[in-house]
Structures are given as structure tokens and as C-alpha cells.
Amino acid sequence: MNVIVITACPSGVATTFLASRGLERAAKRRGWTVTVEMHSQLEPVVPIGPAALEAAELVVVAASAPVDVSRFVGKRVYQAPIAEALPDPDAFLKQAESGARPLTSAAAASKTEAAPAAWSPEKGGPKIVAVTACPTGVAHTFMAAEALTRAGQGLGHPIRVETRGSVGAQDPLSAEEIRDAEVVILSCDIEVDSSRFVGKRVWRTSTGTALKKSEQTIRDALEKAQVMAGQPGRAEAAGGGGGKAGGRGGPYQHLLTGVSFMLPMVVAGGLLIALSFVFGIDAFKQEGSLAAALMRIGGGAAFKLMVPLLAGYIAYSIADRPGIAPGMIGGYLASELGAGFLGGIAAGFIAGYAARGLSRYVRLPASVESLKPILIIPLVASLVTGLVMIYVVGAPMAAIMSAVTGFLTNMNSGNAILLGVLLGAMMCFDLGGPINKAAYTFGVGLLSAGAGSYGPMAAIMAAGMVPPIGMGLASLFARKKFSEPEREAGKASLVLGLCFISEGAIPFMAKDPLRVIPVSMVGGALTGALSMYFGVQLMAPHGGLFVLLIPNAVNHVLLYLLSITAGSLAVGVGYALLKTGKAELPGAAATPRDKQWGVGARDDRAAA
Questions:
Q1: β-strands 230-231, 183-188: how paired?
Q2: Helix (H/G/I), strand (E/B), else coil: 37
Q3: Which of 3-7, 148-152, 424-428 has the lowest mean pLDDT?
């Protein structure tokens, strides 16, 4: 039998391709001659030719977007939403064969006119705006934005997403877009300025949730979002917005906010110190030399500002702007007292909650209320934070930091290997999730402790590169076990891995977690152990293999490469052996940008 299959979904990306391929294979298994027409944003629609149209005995339209069916008048036509075709294409075609009816001119006109009403942005569901932001502002920020965009289009809701990445806000939301939005989704792992959303219904979630459960996130936002309290231009410190944490995020999000602001300082300082070593390991000791100037900028300025920035922006995340001054003062005291990044974390939380308590609970006469944010809160919160740091927290934190530094400096090879195994496995467990970020924050914080603490950072970055590189290698080693979309995702994963973007392996982890996670942890643990055993030290906490282009950024380059290679091969070979057969990767037909970021991992079963 000659059959025409037409697929169309609102986003015109993944679901269109997945449905067309599934229906085409199912039709061929039934011995039918099939011609496919896909309505996609990736390439122009190629209409069915006159010969195929004339010969067609059955027309199957799997579409949740407007499709002109008037050309099929007189033919047996079966039309249904594209979501019904995805789970079981064979059953869908069986239903189409039995349920198809000759299409009349009146029916064709009604079908063509009715479709846009349900899906056009102007007449679709409630308008949504969203903001995505992750601590490093590299992968999760953009992956979550792409997932929310596709899910919104698939559910029929016009949606605009602002990404707050490492280079600042991109595609910023306009005041008009915010005004017209029914709901605001803040998919943020760090605190962002939400004052412009006061009076709007706001739903808070994480980038990971928005990425993996994008459709559910939109449904939850529409059903459960709460109106953000506060005055226009200034949100309440603890109010507004639905979400698991309710209002502002919990301690984990506050910590990540501080880390995200500290990270550029750490990267710049570490690389400047490494550049000073280009002239010789001890060249910076010569006064007036360029090496001395580079060391002064990197180690004398940038690294000294790390802890105050960390503490200041932890406090900012908790109490908004009034928390910055007491937080930075507490962070500076932590550095002076030798409490390091642990003391800075404590100072940030002390300052933040002190400022927040003063803002919320201290009531003053109206005549002096305006002095509270610029005089009373900074003064009292700074006094409280400083006294607590000096007399209570500073000494214990300094002792702990000294013990950690001493342990790292003097540990034997057995302890080094165990620490490398632990950090490497943590980096590979959830690929950018809380456990991964905990290990990463530990390594970044230790950079301020001196040369003896650069080893963990090397193990952490090396292990973080292993899962995406390993998945890319597996798709090359066992090509027959990987479908074409999986192999394309493997290429992107390989490139992202070289850049230390662990999220490149997320499409594989989302589809096959019971195999990908264990084999990734084994490879990461091996890499971390080898890096620590070889005594590799790394100055900068990001950049992947490209950091090696800077002389002396890594002390044992070949051994470092050997560690990464060993772990990547373990993952690549291990997964190539464990993987069972081909499978379509969710989001297989994503855009080139999707492939770059690995967004295909989101659940597209019902994207349309």
C-alpha cells in the first residue's frame, strides 16, 4: 500500500524527526511504500510530489501544529496529535489504517483553520518568561534555557528565556515581556536580581530540574507559582516566588552564589601566577621584574580578594545589597585570621543572616527608616560579623584550615590516592549536580591556601573531563551499538569534555544512568587517583586542556595527560562493552546548538 506520512510539532525540532523516523520504519515493516513530509525548523519543507500524492492510498497526519490537508481531499486521511505516534508507531499505523476516512472539502477547511487556534503564540496558552543561571554560567545555563523553550513550545505556551551566563545576561527580558507574562520561572542555582518581577507570579527551581523535567517545571509554574512580594524595583529578602525552597534559596544556593562571583577572580589570579612562573619558578622574588609584578597582581591582589568576594556574595544572596559590606568585611577578617575559605563561608552566612534579621525584624520610626539600609544595617551587621569572627569563629576555622593544608602538604601517596579517588568519583556522579559542585567548591577554595593545596584542583578538573570524553570515545569504539544521533551527541560530548564541561555526558546519563554513572565514577576515580599520585598541581580551576597552553599552569603536563587519558579510556571502553544495542537518543534531531550543549537529553516523549 502507498502511504504518505506527515509529521509536525510546535517546536519543529526533535519530535518531528523522531515521529517521522518511527512511523517510516513501522510502515516499511508492514510492507508499505511510504513517503514522508516533515515540517521542521531545521530545513525547508519538501512537499509531497504529484506522483506520490496521486498514488497514495492512505494519508497519515501526526501533527500538533498547523498542516494544510486540503490537498488530500478525496484521499483516506487519518489525523491525530504527534504525541500519540511516538510511544508505539506500529499501533498508531494500525489505528490509522482502520480509522482513516475520505477527506471532504468541508472537513479539510475546518481542520486547516482549527489547528492554528490551539498553537499560535497569540492565541496559545499563557505567556511565560524565564531566567536560567548556574554557578559557572557555561553549560547548565544554556541547556536549561533550550529545554524550557522546547517544552514551552511543545505545550503551546509562548516562552522567552533570559540566560545569565559567564558573560552576563544574554537575550534580556524587556519590561513589556515581563509585564505581559502570566508566570515567571527562575531556573537558577545562584541568586539573581528578582526585583523586576515583583507583583508577578514566580516559580523558583534549579537548572537541573528545568533541564531534566522541563515540561513538569512549566506545569508546576502555571499551577503553583506565587506572587512575589515587595515594592517595584526591590523584592523582599525572603519572600516571593514558589518553589521547593520558597522565596530565596537555601544555604546551598547561597554558597553557589558566592562561588560563582569568586570564580573569575580565582581563574584570573591562578593564571597570572602561572604566567609569572614562565620566567622561572623563583623569578618573582626579584623586585621590579615583570614576574614580580604578575605575582603581585595574581597572588597579592586577586587571591587576597577571593575570600572577601566569596563571603560578600554569600551574604548578598541571603540579604540582598545590605549584606555585601558586612560579608566582605567578615571575609577579609577570615583571610587575616588565617581561616581561609572555610572562614569566608562562615563569615558570609553570619553577615547575611545578621543583615537579613535587621532588615526584617528591626522597626524604626518613619523619619529614620531610610537610614536603615545605608547606615544601620551595614554598621550593626559588620560589627556583629567582625566580633563573631575575631572572638568566636576565626580561631577554630583557622585551626581547621591549617590542619587541612598540613594534611594536603604532608600526606603520603596512600592518602593522596584515596583523596583523588573520592574527589574523582564525586565529580562524575551527577555531572554538575550538588555532589559535583561540592567537590569543585572544595578544590577552588583550597587554591587560596598556597602551593601545597593545588593538587586537589588538578584531580578535580581532570576527573570532570573524563565522562564526556569517555562517552565520545565509546561512540567511536562501538559505532554499531550507537545510533546516528547518539554518535553525533558523542562528537559534541568529546569536544565539551576537552573544555572541562562535564555536562556533555548528560544525554547519555539521562538515557542510560545505570550504566553511565558507575562506569563514569570508575574512570573519574582512576583519573583522580593518578593525578594525586603523580603530584600534579593546577593553578587555574577551569579551562580544560586549553589551560596547558599556558606554561607552568600545570607542573607535570605529560603525567596529567596520562591521568586524563587513562580515565577516559576506562570510561570509553567500559561503556562500549556494557552498552546493549542501539537506541534513539532523546532529542536526536536537535539543532546544531542543541548538539553543542547536549540538550537532547531532555524528555521529548510528549514535547508536542
A1: unpaired
A2: strand
A3: 148-152
Contact in structure between 468 and 429 (CB atoms under 8 Å): no
The Cα-based distances of 133 to 122, 192, 228, 235, 242 in angstroms read 28, 8, 19, 18, 17
3-state secondary structure at position 422? helix
Known active-site residue 134: yes
Can you read off the three cell numbers belonging to residue 105? Answer: 472539502
Q: What is the pLDDT of residues 391-404, one digit of tens each?
A: 999 889 989 888 88
Question: Would you call 428 a catalytic residue per the annotation?
Answer: no
Return d(Cα 251, Cα 388) in angstroms, integer. Answer: 19
- pTM of this prediction? 0.61
Distances (CA, A) of 118 to 5, 17, 111, 123: 22, 21, 11, 7
Q: In this structure, what are the phi and psi dihedrals at residue 63, rounded to the nearest 5 degrees?
A: -150, 140
Active-site residue, from 9, 188, 428, 499:
9
In one-letter notation, the amino acid at residue 585 is: L
For residue 116, CA distances in Å to 109, 122, 123, 547 come to: 12, 10, 8, 51
Question: What span, in angstroms and rounded, lies between the C-alpha atoms of 33 and 56?
Answer: 9
pLDDT of residue 288: 85
* Per-residue three-class SS string for 505-522: HHHHHHHCHHHHHHHHHH
Q: Which of 458, 602, 430 is nearest to 528 (CA)?
A: 458
**Which residue, among 505, 514, 494, 482, has the nearest Cα to 584 in the 3D structure?**
482
Alpha helices in 447-512 (DSSP H): 455-477, 484-498, 506-511
The C-alpha cell that represents 360 in the structure block: 526584617
Q: What is the percentage of the chain residues whose pLDDT exceeds 90?
A: 25
- Degrees to nearest 5, angle at CA 150 with 158 and 206: 95
Question: In what helix (H) or strand (E) does residue 315 lie, and over which residues does it extend?
Answer: helix 303-319
Q: C-alpha cell of 393?
A: 569563629
Q: What is the pLDDT of residues 419-454, one digit of tens each?
A: 999 999 999 988 877 788 888 888 887 876 665 578
Q: For residues 507 and 597, is the Cβ–Cβ distance under 8 A?
A: no
- Type of residue numbered 297: I
Residues 6 or more apart whose Cβ sits within 8 Å of residue 387: none
- How far is it, in rounded angstroms, from Cα 162 to Cα 131? 5
Of the candidates 218, 216, 204, 150, the one whose C-alpha atom is nearest the C-alpha of residue 12 is 150
The C-alpha atoms of residue 192 and residue 300 are separated, in whole angstroms, by 30
Q: How many residues does the chain have?
A: 608
Strand partners, 203: 185, 242
pLDDT at position 166 = 60
Q: How far apart are CA 274 and CA 298, in angstroms?
A: 9
Grid cell, residue 196, equals 523586576
Question: Do 216 and 203 touch, CB atoms closer than 8 A?
Answer: no
Return d(Cα 408, Cα 174) in angstroms, integer: 50
Tell me how far apart the alpha carbons of residues 547 and 532 are, in angstroms, rounded to a whole number. Answer: 18
Q: Which residue, among 556, 564, 338, 567, has the nearest Cα to 454 in the 3D structure?
A: 556
Q: How far is 398 from 404, CA to CA, in rounded Å? A: 10
Strands (E) across 168-281 are located at 168-170, 183-188, 201-205, 226-227, 230-231, 234-235, 242-243
3-state secondary structure of 201: strand
Copy the grid coordinates of residue 537. Answer: 598541581
